[in-house]
Amino acid sequence: MEPTRAAPARREIRSKRVCLSRVAIPRLSRPVVVRGRVVDRRAPAFAKSIRARLAQAGARRINRSVIIQQSNLLFGQEKPRLFQFGGRARSWRRGPATPVIWPNEVHVWKINLKAPGLCDNREILANDERIRASRFRFHTDSDRFIAARSSLRTILARYLRTQPAEVKFGLNPFGKPHLTGGQDKLGLRFNLSHSQDMALLAVARNRDLGVDVEFRRADFATDEVARRFFSRAERNQLGAIAPEQRTEAFFNCWTRKEAYIKARGEGLSFPLDQFDVSFAPDAPPALLGNRRDAHEVSRWSFEELSPADGYAAALTVEGNFSRLLLWDFPGSAI
Fold first, then answer.
1. What's the pLDDT tens digit per position in 55-92?
2. Domain 69-328 superfamily per CATH
3. Theoretical Cys-Cys bridge with 165: which of 65, 70, 124, 183, CB 3.0 to 4.6 Å?
């Protein structure tokens, strides 16, 4: 009987897990973590290959969404534009029922104040809000106020995972609302603006912000209004713009100044003629100068918004951010 032949020795194969994190690629690309099993000594080469591919994909994504450019703005000054999201090309998507907001993001919600049912949500308002609603002279203005405030409560409640009626507000010394109590564990900051049948709500985490929307009315864009609210340099620039573009430029200036004032949270206690914004048609929005504090220019980021035809809108955010999401409040398509 032949002796039993020993089975050939098999090479022991060890599996290694390769985990690639965000550290491997640029910060703004926000890749998904990639995990895979590879064999023995091929692990380092595999990891290096995946890192290179993700870095290339991330670079392409940055080039598409973040444009680094310099623009000749108001008064012929050149100011670097670090983040430009392409305001006119952005689209508004249906807002999520349970939104998640990251520290590097800003969310803007578009609300149609004429949407069915919004003005019937009086029961979720606080007593002081109901009193304010009852003081409007015209029923249409009262309905718009109820629709705006109830939408504000509903949207913020989605972030806080609570009921709209449970959202509590306080006011700073200049009247800007903020969340109170222990309900906010995210550091949410928000700002609401409405004009005619349109409202915009901007939301961010741990950074001040302001938003303004205005219905373009040619009869309001007058030299008299500009003399009252614009700086001397802004008035001179407005007068040099072609008449057919003057209304658009006027409301660009108006909304950007208003958004900046609202972001500061000091109301009209800060004189409007003490700072300048860019507003020429197709000029990137920016704060060009602040005669009371020159450091303000680098503190704030500006974005142009296009919520609907006939409306001008602007967003001002403290610091830089890498992602802007535009949400359409359910049932609010305009």
1. 665 554 434 333 333 333 333 333 333 344 444 447 89
2. 4'-phosphopantetheinyl transferase domain (3.90.470.20)
3. 124
Alpha-carbon distance 306 to 143, whole Å?
Answer: 24
Q: Are 59 and 26 in contact (CB under 8 A)?
A: yes
Phi first, then psi: give them for residue 326, nearest 5 degrees.
Answer: -110, 115
Residues in the chain, overall count: 334
Tens of pLDDT, residue by residue over 164-173, are 999 999 999 9
Task: At 187, list the tokens.
Answer: 């550091």
Q: Are 27 and 55 in contact (CB under 8 A)?
A: no
Residue 109 and residue 209 in contact, taking contact as beta carbons nearer than 8 Å: no
**Rounded CA separation 274/271 (Å):** 6
Q: Find all residues with CB under 8 Å of 134, minimum gap 6, and list them.
A: 142
Query: What is the chain's alpha carbon radius of gyration, rounded to the nearest angstrom?
Result: 26
Q: Are 305 and 252 in contact (CB under 8 A)?
A: no
8 SS3 class? coil
Q: Where are the alpha helices (DSSP H) in 161-269?
A: 223-229, 232-239, 243-264
Nearest Cα to Cα of residue 210 among 317, 124, 282: 317
Cα separation, 25 vs 51, in Å, equals 7
Domain map (residue ranges) of the chain: 15-53, 69-328
Residue 173 per-residue DSSP state: T
